[in-house]
């Protein structure tokens, strides 16, 4: 078994995509159609972004010249984040995931805090717990938005954001999770549909949306978070299901909004944290947490 860095190349990004698709397969009840071209492009771009910003945190496992697994991780201001880890089905149970996790974790040596978004796969959950992470069960809300519940816009102004708001974004990030997202904001601004900003004397917050999915929401108060979430859901295109992921029990404000607007709720994976409590009010980005 050989481990090497993931290169910032189309070939390595395609390899990561193929392993991820084979490892995670199609969720129960989901259509078996291949990912939409836009989603594929986004995944390829995400891999190249991480390989460029954190080459020491992104690794491929190869056996007899064949790539069998990968780990993508970043280090941001004292927080180490495992963005994604996957192993081909026929290579699972052989210690490949453990080797990849150990090598990627070396990139976070000295970090007091850590974050991982985990599926409910028993092997993955066991691996992260043994690595010292606390497992926080998460929920997923999904479905068509009940537009009748959006008639009250609220009294907090929300407006489109841009790169000129980086100071606000970094400030909110540091307050909630102890570290800014840094270059990930450049990626999200370039690839997501919109950034929404709320900035008042009482606090600040922001939210990214891509199609029907709320990709990341962070605010300094629940009142601001609720306002941002309702605004983001109001902007979901007609005929598109809304999606909220990785909501822990600390995000009851988001659960309440989602249920009020007709979304369905179910358990879905874990937010694995080390040295920190779940940030709140906060809906993580599964790609960058």
UniProtKB/TrEMBL annotation:
UniProt xrefs under PROSITE patterns: GNAT
Keyword Transmembrane: no
InterPro entries in UniProt: Acyl_CoA_acyltransferase, Bact_Acetyltransf, GNAT_dom
Gene3D superfamilies: 3.40.630.30
Any Pfam family the entry gives: Acetyltransf_1
Domain N-acetyltransferase: residue ranges: 1-157
Source taxon at top rank: Bacteria
CDD domains with a match to the protein in the record: NAT_SF
Keywords: Acyltransferase, Transferase
Protein's UniProt keywords contain Acyltransferase: yes
Protein name in the entry: N-acetyltransferase domain-containing protein
